């Protein structure tokens, strides 16, 4: 007999309950996940209830301009873009062209291609281009979601500071690293980058931040929130 899979952890069932009750899927979101899987994209999207949290945070923020660093297939992008007003704008940065192609199709099917722009290439290059445009025609972002390669997290936080305004909100995902974030000697670049980003959030005079642990369908993780101060 083949070994039986382990029973689901209770927090997975709770995540499913919360998502089904409070963040039920619709055709565009379901199709975005399906087409991402078909295209072979890694299954590292935010969960539905996490996507709903991003949506509510952006709406509570009154965000008119949103920056997302790390697009993947556009699932979180859909949640964020749906929080925008009719004249809002979201720019999302994706390293891999094949991921960006999937994301653009998902955003178009969701009716969000007119308010979103997927920029392809290394995020630091795209951020530098945004910084140059910001210097000439400043239009700050009200909300930033960082969910890309973790080694560059401190650089992404630094750029977010340059591209936002007092009162903007920065969300940094995947900060717990299964608990490894507490180990100052861990050589993993993702852990080191996350620790450096959190240290920056803690000491920067223009940021007020906190971090929250989570457990659910994606395992043991968490996120950090930082508000840009005057």
Task: Summarize this structure as a short list of keywords or feature phrases.
230 residues, alpha/beta, 7 strands, 43% helix
The total of helices stands at 8
Count of individual beta strands: 7
Distance between the termini: 64 Å
Strand pairing plus helix content: what structural class?
alpha/beta
Low-confidence stretches: none
CATH homologous superfamily grouping:
Vaccinia Virus protein VP39
CATH secondary-structure class: Alpha Beta
Question: What CATH architecture label applies?
Answer: 3-Layer(aba) Sandwich
Main sheet?
Answer: 7 strands, mixed
How is the CATH topology named? Rossmann fold
Strand order of the largest sheet: 3-2-1-4-5-7-6
Q: How many discrete structural domains? A: 1
The succession of helices and strands, N to C, reads: HHHEHEHEHEHEHEE
Rg for CA atoms: 18 Å
The percent range for strand residues is 15-25%
Helix content: 40-55%
The outline comes out as globular
User: Mean pLDDT across all residues, rounded?
Assistant: 95
């Amino acid at each position: 007999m083949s070994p039986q899979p382990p029973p689901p952890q209770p927090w997975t069932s709770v995540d499913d309950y919360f998502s089904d009750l409070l963040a039920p899927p619709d055709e565009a979101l379901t199709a975005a996940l399906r087409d991402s899987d078909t295209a072979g994209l890694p299954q590292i999207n935010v969960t539905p209830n996490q996507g709903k949290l991003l949506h509510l945070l952006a709406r509570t923020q009154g965000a008119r301009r949103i920056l997302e660093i790390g697009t993947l297939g556009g699932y979180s992008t859909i949640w964020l873009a749906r929080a925008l007003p009719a004249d809002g704008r979201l720019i999302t940065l994706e390293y891999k062209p094949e991921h960006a192609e999937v994301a653009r199709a998902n955003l178009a099917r969701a009716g969000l291609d007119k308010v979103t722009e997927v920029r392809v290439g290394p995020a630091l290059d795209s951020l530098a281009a945004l910084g140059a445009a910001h210097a000439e025609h400043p239009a700050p972002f009200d909300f930033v979601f960082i969910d890309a390669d973790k080694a560059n997290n401190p650089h992404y936080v630094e750029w977010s500071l340059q591209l936002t305004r007092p009162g903007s909100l920065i969300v940094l995902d995947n900060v717990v690293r299964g608990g490894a974030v507490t180990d100052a000697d861990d050589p993993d670049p993702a852990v080191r980058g996350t620790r450096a980003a959190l240290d920056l959030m803690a000491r920067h005079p223009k940021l007020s931040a906190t971090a929250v642990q989570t457990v659910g369908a994606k395992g043991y993780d968490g996120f950090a929130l930082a508000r840009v101060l005057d």
